[in-house]
Design goal:
This protein has 394 residues and is mainly alpha-helical. The chain contains 15 helices and six strands. It starts with 11 loop residues before the first helix and ends with a helix.
Amino acid sequence: MKLWQKGYELDHEIERFTTGSDYLLDMHLIEFDCIASQAHARMLGKIGLISPKEADELVIELKNLIELVKAGDFSIAPDQEDCHTAIEIYLTSKLGDTGKKIHTGRSRNDQVLTAIRLYTKTQLEKTLGRAKSLITAIDGFIDRVGEVPIPGYTHTRKAMPSSTKMWAESFKCAIEDDLTLIECAIKLIDQSPLGTGAGYGIPLPLDREFVANELGFSRVQNNPIYAQHSRSKFDIFAVNTLVQVMFDLNRLATDLIIFTLPQLDFFRLPDEFQTGSSIMPQKKNPDILELMRAKLHEVNGYENTIRSCTANLISGYNRDIQITKEPLIKAFEASLQTLGVAELLFKNLSVNQEKCAAAMTEELFATEQAYRLVQNGVPFRDAYQLIAQKFMKP
């Protein structure tokens, strides 16, 4: 039984095409949909559209369903299409006519908006926590290693002196800026769309502020058309925030790929972080770093999918947007996993002080030598030329 059933059967091939993998993806959302449904049931009881007893029964059964989901004892059948249908069928099987009342004042459109909003908010809060843990790990690396001089590079050539501390703190500063972006994304999505229906409101005296408060939203999203439009807008913004984080981790990975080269050997990965070759017995490969570097492009691709899929749509809901659910979920999975790996790296990365010291060759101090001349009254351009001549190859 589908929520839209009208006495005819859908062609099986069309059903497979339109359902896609939603029944699987919605297992990520079903707990949030149940939480939103509990708040909705309480509100229906508050305004008298269902009795207090019915509201309590619905809340209890939704709690039971959440426990089944957490225990791995509930799944969504392909013919149910999505978690919304699965929830209503479950409630109806347990409560009869009372279960049929849960959809009063809702559309699947604002249902999925709310579930995704709650999911995204939770995932962004997890991302914020992981990013803060990474900053703590960077601080731990600095405390453990100290300030070991290493070459600084421009154009992939030795340039000026740097240090392990300066290098690590550059990533700390980047992640601290990312925290601001994540917090901004949380603030943006922190508005409740429940009660906007299919995009044109609900002709019932719903208490939307009550539901928003129950779900922990700071405000209600008022315009029902924009509530629909905001799904793609907010998803793009959230994933773009993840792209910014992954951009920084991409650079971290590239640096470590170079700095752990045997030819340089400034940093070392523990053996348990490296894989081997199936043909070359001597090889230890930094696959973890290469995959971390690649994850930026994966998440960037998810953002592009959401943006390109939802551009050029007319106002109101369009089924195209169903395609954006998977890239949103996968973007969070990839980003959270990569942040965790980056934290492990900083906790386990070691420094080869001997190789770092040997790499601090004279040309790194050329600029410093020029400025010594400047401090003695030599014009900078003359000082520049004098030191340049010193390092010119014959």
